[in-house]
Amino acid sequence: MSAVGWTQIGLLALLVGLLVRPLGGYLARVYAGERALLQRVLGPIESALYRSAGVDASVEQTWLEYAVALLVFNVVGVIALYLLLRCQSLLPLNPQGQAALTPDLALDTAVSFVSNTSWQSYAGETTLSHLAQMAGIAVQSFLSAATGLAVAVALIRGFSRRTTGTIGNFWADITRSVLYVLIPICVVVALFFVAEGVPQTLAGTVEAQTVTGGTQLIARGPVASQEAIKLLGGDGGGFFNVNSAHPFENPTPLTNLVAILLMLVLGAALTNTFGRMVGSERQGWALLATMAVLFGLGIAGLYAGEWRGNPALASLGVDQAPGPLQAGGNMEGKEARFGVVGSALFAEGSTASSDGAVDAMHDSFLPLSGGILLGNMMIDEVIIGAPGSGLWGILLFCLVAVFIAGLMIGRTPEYIGKKIEAREVKMAVLALLCAPALILGLAALASVAPDGLAGLGNAGPHGFSEILYAYTSAAATNGSAFAGLSANTPFYNLTLALAMFAGRFLVIVPVVAIAGSLAAKRTIPSSAGTLPTDGPQFVLLLAGTIVIVGGLIFFPALSFGPLVEHFAMQGGAAY
Fold it and tell me: What letters, b where the CB count within 10 A reaches 16 and e where it falls short, cover 499-524?
């Protein structure tokens, strides 16, 4: 490992740390309905949107009304995107004449982007029209991110309010998320990407002459605008099939660093928003510290593992040391311009933030590195997570952690001045077990079903890892892949769509129910026996709870995949 590599990691950590507090304060003002940046410009637009939709933003909703509005809105989004993809051949802005998607692929894609997953069983530049990319994929990237932010804010209100039956207005929360948070940042980021060389055009492919005298068709389109929201909104679906490894999506080391920063910044800032809205920023710093510990362990393992290189190649005498003519380390499936550290940092940011964008082939990472990427997704998006889902994921674990602590010391569990009782614990456990049940159940089915096995690109433990990764990525709303699996089949399109929809919305409903239950409770003053939840002791308790719960659920599955492959590789076997 090199000083330059650790400098890149340190620079990213510094940038995220510097942005957490100002952005967190801005988000708190936006969702509190206070005067915010661009209010004078965007306020009339917000009011016009409410009038046109017949929404009274001042009327708040109960948790059930909030959940129903959210579900109806997202189901309509699935239907609208499905119809657009099925009819794209008949619609304008289709310079390449792309055909309509098959019913199963259209459903898989519609659920994928509405659920903030961005799983892609297709090559974007050869499958989707410009209209489908802009009015379908990009629009749902905004709306799915806004849905996550809205749920997170509703849960924060549950902790911050007392003896009330309402948790906010879904229509107001999602509108403010898009208008005041996502669009302003994405406009600036898209202009930056254009300046760095990312295309933004409605023209089709262009023909170029190669150095050997042949011709090549180079795809292009409205890339920069989609790139901005895919990274910021946690919906990492790329315009191109190779995602952020493509020079038109990620042309320079600077854009690579900015891309990772965008994946992390909203999820990290929401911890500060939480602290501000519940009246103690220290509570938010404790959550961020827990995320940072888990993120640090992940990137340290990835960087160290990939830097050492592939032991199978080392046994053949292949030189994998860094030098003037090579980056060094395990460079299979990685871009030479980013090297091991840029690829490892991007992969950690992608799987920890639940964004799913990639600048390297995760299928080519070493087995233990692949296990780390799987582990990041398996613990319910708590390491930063996508906008909103990371915060509610770690707060669910907070409820479990204080419940365990309460059992150990013989006190009723409390968190942020609220008693955590049977209803909240049951809802938290239901939400936390939903994704594991989907992952393990569907991976088991695919591992024995002929249609599931037909998609494998590899035999043995790596093939199992490909299946496990696919359903983990889907249920955890991540969207990245071990791309050796051929997933564009009716079996995988339909089962992955089920995993994505259930993994998103069967978690959201219990979270909103918890918000309603907490908002109705009175606040309990802290006493000498109250467990402090804003210090190092709680950070260790929370991190330990996350790791232990994740390990108990997934260690057997990881043993059959990445661990078996690792030990086989050390012994010289090939899989």
Answer: bbbbbbbbbbbbbbbbbbbbbbbeee
